[in-house]
Design goal:
single chain; about 250 residues; Rossmann fold; about 45% helix; globular; binds NADP nicotinamide-adenine-dinucleotide phosphate
């Protein structure tokens, strides 16, 4: 009898709190994002970040929040302490070499003019790794290599600079504020256009696009990365993945 009463009481309390929760949601007191945050991945990746500036620090923070382990790198790693403190226990800091040794996946987010140096110093160590390249070639900033990238395509130029590397182009089309404002939208997530020649690398990078709070839109091999370069139609678009893929088919 006492057991029965206790059970009834427990059910009533549960119903009461569920009711409060539902009302709070309907009234908008609780942000819907509380319920739409991705859960920690069961097999977190180790991500090494080369270039922990605007884009590198933002994506690294998203991935750390999603449960991955992130090593932010710098040519002066001591200056990364505030970033690591802010991002929390999933993050650490080191040299570029440390990031390459650490990462199952490497994010390169440097001004494109630095890619020749990165190629010279690290191409051998990067061979065989999955690398996500966010770079845009800016003529006034990026010198000769920027010029080549504008003419031949950033993705194809990165592949030439990093032979044997499994390069994926992604995250080059939206500035950091737009990334922050659009990540993990409860409804109508927006697409990150992607391209690359290595299917497994595209699969891993697609997972990281999702874990950053967006939908992957794989548009094809590296030659298709031109479609979402700075001067081209799919750059800067805040649209869904199906729409991105449909638009790409017409280009
Ligand atoms: N900012 C945006 O909103 C945005 C959006 C889309 C794409 N992009 C593209 O993404 C790339 C990164 O942009 P960003 O704005 O994040 O750049 P950023 O804030 O200037 O940061 C770039 C980082 O690259 C590192 N770096 C520079 N030269 C290097 C080298 N030779 N070796 C190793 N590290 C080097 C620097 O780190 P240390 O000095 O600490 O070593 C610096 O913190 C660019 O190609 C940009 O066009 C930017």
């Amino acid at each position: 009898m006492a057991q029965h009463k206790l059970l009834n009481w427990t059910i009533r309390v549960a119903q009461y709190f569920t009711g409060i929760l539902a009302v709070a949601l309907v009234l908008g007191i609780l942000p819907r994002s509380v319920f739409s945050q991705p859960s920690a991945p069961s097999n977190p990746l180790k991500i090494g970040i080369i270039g922990s500036g605007n884009i590198g620090s933002t994506l690294g923070e998203f991935w750390a929040k999603a449960g991955h382990q992130v090593l932010f790198s710098s040519r002066n790693p001591e200056k990364l302490k505030p970033l690591v403190d802010k991002v929390g226990p999933q993050a650490r800091a080191g040299t570029v070499q440390d990031a390459i040794a650490f990462g199952d996946v490497i994010l390169i987010a440097v001004p494109y003019g630095s890619m020749s140096q990165i190629s010279k110093d690290y191409a051998k160590d990067l061979a065989g790794k999955i690398v996500i390249d966010t770079g845009n070639a800016v003529l006034a900033r990026d010198g000769e290599i920027g010029k080549e990238a504008r003419e031949k395509g950033v993705g194809l130029t990165t592949q030439r600079l990093l032979p044997g590397v499994r390069v994926v182009r992604a995250f080059n089309t939206l500035g950091v504020n737009r990334l922050r404002n659009n990540a993990n939208r409860a409804e109508a997530r927006i697409a990150i256009p992607m391209a690359g020649d290595d299917q497994e690398a595209l699969k891993v990078a697609s997972r990281l696009v999702r874990d950053a709070g967006f939908d992957p839109a794989v548009l094809g091999g590296m030659d298709r990365a031109r479609l979402f370069e700075q001067t081209n139609p799919l750059y800067g678009q805040e649209i869904s993945a199906p729409e991105m893929i449909e638009r790409a088919k017409k280009l």
